[in-house]
Amino acid sequence: MSNKEVKAALKSARDAIRNKEYKEALKHCKAVLKQEKNNYNAWVFIGLAATELEQPDQAKAAYKKAIELEPNQLLAWQGLANLYEKSNQTVVKGDLADVYQKLLELYKSGDKQKWCDVCNKLVELYHQEKKYLEVAETWQKLIQMKQEEGAEKAELHQLWKKMIQLLKDSTQNQDNKTEQSLLTAFEHAVNSADTVPGEDHQNLYKDFIQCLSKFPHETARLEKACNDMMALYPTVSYPLEVLCLHFIQSGTLSEEALHCFSRLLEMDASSGPGIIGFGVRCLQEKKYKEAVKSLTEGLQKTSQCPAAWHYLAEAQMKIHKHGDAVLSCNQALEVLGTPEGPSLRWKNLILQLKAEALIKIADADAAEEAIKALEQIVDASSDPVVLAIRGRAYLNRGLMDQASKISQELLLSHPNLAESHALEGFIHYSQKNYEQAERSFLNAIGKKAETAEYHQYLGLTYWFMSDETKKDKGKALTQFLKAAKLDSYLGSVFCYLGNYYRDIAGDKSRARGCYKKAFELDGTDEESGTAAVDISVELGDMDTALSILNEVTEKASTGTAKWAWLHRGLYYLRTGQPSQAVADLQAALRADPKDSNCWESLGEAYLSRGSYSTALKSFRKASELNPELVYSIYRAAAVEQILGKYENAIATYQQILKKTEDYVPALKGLGECYLMLGRSALDNYLDRKAVDYIEQALEFFTRATKHRPDVSCLWKLLGDTCTSVHVISPAKVNVQVLGSLLGKNAGKQILKKSELLRLGGRCYGRALKLMPLPSIWCDLGINYYRQAEHLTAVGTDMNEISELLEKSLQCLKKAVRLDSKNHLYWNALGVVASCSAIGNYALAQHSFIKSVQAEQINVVAWTNLGVLYLATGNIEQAHEAFKVAQSLEPSYLLCWIGQALIAETVGSYDTMDLFRHTTELSMHTEGAKGYAHWVCSTLQDESNRNTELYLYNIVEMNAIPAAQVVLSKYTERNPDDASAFTMLGYLNEYLHLKRQAADAYERATSLLKNSEDTEKYNIAMQNYGRSLCALGQCDKAIEVYTSTPLTGFDGIVGIALAYFKKGLLQESIKAYEKALSVAESEQDKAHILTALAIIEYKQNKVDAAKTLLFKCSLKEPSMESLKALCTLGLVKQDATLATAALKELLKHEKGDDNIYERCLIASAVYALQGRNVAVQREVSKAIHSNPDNPALWSLLSRLVPLYASQKAKGGAMAGSIAHVLDVNHGKEVLLNIAVNQLAAGCHMLEDEKNNPLKNIQKAIHLCPDNPAAWAVLMAACHAENTVVCLNNTQPKRTDLEMTLVSTISAKTGENNLPHNYIRTLEDWCLCQAITSLEEAGKLSEAEALCTKGLKSCPEHPALFLLLRQVQCKQLLQSHKELPDTILEELRKTVMTSSTSVAAWQANVSNEHWPSLVQEATAEALKLSSCPLAALLQALLQYNRKMGARETRRMLERVVYQPGNPETIVSVARWYLLQHLYAKDDYELIDVLIENAKANGDVRALELNEKLSASA
Questions:
Q1: Which region among 335-349, 502-516, 907-921 has the lowest average model confidence (pLDDT)?
Q2: 975 CB contacts (<8 Å, ≥6 apart)?
Q3: Torsion over CA of 720, 721, 722 and 727, rounded to 10 degrees?
Q4: Which of 159, 572, 1116, 1229 is deepest in the core (most CB within 10 A)?
Q5: Model pTM?
Q6: Residues 6+ positions from 146 with CB-CB distance below 8 Å
Q7: CB atoms < 10 A from the CB of 577, how many?
Q8: C-beta of residue 1138 within 8 angstroms of C-beta of residue 1106
Q9: Three-class secondary structure of residue 91 per DSSP
Q10: DSSP element (H, E) containing 751
């Protein structure tokens, strides 16, 4: 190829590249290279085409070949640069830099703009690779080029700023040249700025100074830059702040530095560096607290200054805030990071200071941390001071050997170092080698006398060395004073100075000053604070004490400063501010919840505040924490006593006495508790119990007086206890008293009431000798009055009574003279003056009025004044006085009794209401007897039974039981009141309390036996006889009646009844005939004739009885005679007589009074007539009229199973209603409910809570002696077992038959029941047991039980039938054909029991005898609508022809007939379902399944699932 052709090929290649036909270009180039291997342009074109075709390796090789051929030609270098720029590989960046360098050489002499562009690219490349030195050098070349070209100042300024931006990114990694280049750039930039001063220039200067501050060796330059900027910008604080921080960090606190600090604060008072500088200055001037304050404030603003944190820690150490100093050191180390150069010195200083602070904390953990800190100090082993610190750290850590080793090394290597001797001293001091410690500390002081700590420990050494050195002023005191002088912040020294002045010098004032100073210096020093407070209290300076406590508690956080809270709480407690005391003591307990003394104090505070329950808890907590705190246990008992928990208090007091027998407060507390229990028992009229309590109270009070006979209150309490028996009947007071109380040495003596009252007077006298208080004079006066009252009641000589009353009057006058403003004393004086034996009513009136004047709200005095007016006949004034009393306190009982007595006096209708109100308020003898009198009076008037007054006063107000209760209490307190016992007997009769009535009447007769009023005695005897007769004690009743002349109607009738009950019928007839002759009213005569008719019937003279009863009915029919006539008809099965008598009875007896009896008789008559529906309807009709009568509901539930068994569920509901209305019907009603539920087919699977078994179990629990209940239990168990078997589960209640049969037999033997009833019940139970055994498959046991029953009763058809059934079943189970003889026997048995439904239910499973089954069930259905017989017929039809319509009809009749037992229905449902599936009658299947679901028939539902699945 010629040269011309080569040129043409290169031209073609260029055109192809221009047209982006790079492959074509490569062809042309290759053609050229074949001709000319070293053609520069061809290689360049190849490089260019390969680059565009993304073949970088080929392109690179081509460019390098071209460069090799022509190294100074630009094209190849430009192409290579272009290639490298497109590549993202990091490996080519170094080559690219070399390419750029070559291009710079090539462009330097030519194109300046391109040179600048390449230069920029090269700088950017170096900056990316963080080659800052190359960046600096290259950029300086660019600036130099611009300068040579004569660039303007502004452009050069921007170039210098750009250089700063490029170099300041990572000043940490810059070398010295780069650093200098950066600083040079800053200087040129600052100097080349146009607008000076200006905002940009100012910011640039700030950046310059900030950059300089990062280079520790550029100090001079930094100072110059700061000063220059300050000159330019005198109002800008930044350069000053930097300069201040520089001075702080450098540690040079020259005059210039101090001037900077002052100048900065003048410029900006809130500047962090300025405040820090001021703090450093304060530290230099030994103003440590100001230094701490300023440094803390400054560091909050400028926290990144480790030197400042060090200065703060140093200042904190000076004021002994060692914990704070440690925290400051930690902050300094955190700010310091990983130090180098000068910062390393700061790190060592900070670590050393931290270790010193931790050692001062004197804690094992702190010592461990100190050792770790010391290990981080560089070259620590070469510094003896650091070694000494390490030794102290080991000493605090308990590592004595290591500490001793360091001490010995230091003493050998540095004998002139004070720290060496001090360490030795600390070691000896910790080992209590005080002589050696003294020597060491003296040596240390000799080397460094200005160290307060050495003087302090030398003082402590003297303090603990001996008493002589402690008391020697030249020893301990001198050293403490020197230490305090050298270090006025050393609080522990001032504490020991306080100890010296308090314990040795006896100068409390100076001691308080020292303690106060110690506490001011160290707020955590509890010892100093406590001592300062205690001495202030001793000196009477409560303000100082309180100010100290307030200061501490205000600063204290939760759970701290226990001592301060405790002391302030005790102060508040002493000064009567319990609420504040509670708050403070609670705060103390938050700090230490285990402090028993604090809990005790808190209990006292709660007690003072009236929070008794909380006080009790506090005292109990104190005693739990420390069982030896007897006082806490005592206070707990005292609080229980205040709360009225006397039994608990007694137990707690006894607990104290087990530890300390002679603890008088506990003995006193026990006596008070028993006294209070006695008073409570007296209030409740439990006099015998009260006497027991009083006896125990006397014992404990007497024991207390043995130990402390000088305590007046104990004798006063003894007097109170003795006097408290005044209300009790003398017969009940037989109290054992310790002989020591009676002046005897040992043993006990029984005292009567009069002796006990006299003893009370003597005890009051002893109390008065010890402390002549007016209250005790009053108590003594009342005691004398009670003695006189008792003697009056027992009928003693009047002279003695008068003497006692006179003494009483004098004592009360003495009390009034001593304290004329006490209303109680005036009231007592009035009571004594108004008694009948004195009768000084004027004095009494004056006293009551004075009492009212002394105390305006004085209900007692007003009531007593009313009584005085009532006794003197001034009714109106009495009424007014009582009215005032009622207005003052409406619940005060006695004023209401007074009003009731006034009402009784004037004959008011409100009398009974008022007396009743008194009994509702509380019990009082006067009110109780008054109310009982009015109740009895109202009851005796039989004409008022239907009046509203009677219904309200007696019925609605439940008057009879209320009067009986209060009268029982009255007779307990007044056992000699015959009229009260008569009324009590009368009320007991109304309440059917026969035994209590007889006892009351007997007591009345014994009281009236020797009285002159024989009429009252005879009436009492007749009452007694009547009550004995009601009890069935006829012999005694006859004896009582015959002991009195029987002339009155009531007495004759009473003895007649007694004769009748005894069985002396002839004597009874004679007595009744005598009564008939004296009877005045026709009604009484009718009653007697009825009684005579009953006697005739008893003698089997039925016609005579009828005649007498008819005779009663001729004139004015008596209800009793009609009832008797009707009952006679029922007994004799005479329906005509019974019906006629019932008609007559219903005609005459209207209203609801005897509705139950009337309903019962009518039902019995309907039952006799065979009208079963009428029986149930009669009771239902009565209930409709009287729905609140529980007896009628109970009767209905009893009759339903007998006469309307289809409505058994209704019967069960009736029983439930009866039970709700009146629980007393529970015994009978629960039995009826169970029977009804059994009849309705209820069982436990339906309802777990309300079912026959549960209800009959409840009935048996209520009345376990009722044999009928046990029989129903047997039936319920059988029913449950049957249901369980039908549900394919295991029966639970098995093998109970024989147990229940024997139980029923035992119960019938115990009860006095009619013979026929017992026989029927036992027969039924035997049959039921046999049936249960038979169904359980125990045929041999069933046969044995049948045989046993037939032995005792051979002619029993039901048992005989059961025996045959059992025998037949045994033969059928053997799958043998029944012999004709057996069938004949069965037929005979059935015919003998032809009226028994069960006889016709004989199930013969042999298919040869279907007609026999049909006949048996048909006969059974004739006798009764028996569901079981209907089922058997349906099953027989199913067996004959399963798919017949008649089969479905018969089964549906059993399933859907209401009232059929569920067990029978379930079997019918099972077969009906199979029939319907056989007929594919899905509509009826759905109806049947809904029925099964509604009744919970699980077996039918399971069968349905199986049949539907197979279908």
A1: 335-349
A2: 729, 731, 1003
A3: 90
A4: 1229
A5: 0.62
A6: 155, 156, 159
A7: 17
A8: no
A9: coil
A10: strand 748-751
